[in-house]
Design brief:
There is one protein chain. With 153 residues, the protein is an alpha+beta fold. It has five helices and eight strands; from the N terminus they run βαβαβαβββαββα. The chain has a single domain, classed as Peptide Methionine Sulfoxide Reductase, Chain A. The strands form two sheets. Strands 7-6-1-3-2-8 form a six-stranded mixed sheet, with helices on one face. Strands 4-5 form a two-stranded antiparallel sheet.
Length: 153
Amino acid sequence: MERATFAAGCFWGVEAAFSKVEGVISTKVGYTGGTLKDPTYKDVSTGSTGHAESIDIIFDESVITYGELLEVLWNTHDPTTKDSQGPDHGSQYRSAIFYHDDAQREAALRSREQLERSGKYDSTIKTEIVKASEFSPAEDYHQKYFQKLQFKR
């Protein structure tokens, strides 16, 4: 099993998208890229901790590659906006790829460059590519949020 960590705006929708992908074993939403140890949603919402709402993915590379997960990421959000996605604004909603090893870093750089050259967007890609730091899981009520909403209906 391999691990991938991405940020692409509000983590609820990102988790919903990745949880449906064949080869994804598990997803967990949380916070990464910041300075505060064990941040809460309230902490991260201030925009002062440096954390991004993110998703930690465990996947089976014999079923889906890291490169294919990057394609899902690019199609899940607008990578040309800085610190915002849709109605959500602030550095906690930034677009980022948190790589876990050199192979992931290289794949992310290549993928971002290919997307830039594709002409799909008029603006430049703002997605950060940074070394993964500690991932802190979000509170339970954030986990599988959209799935929980479906069960309540």
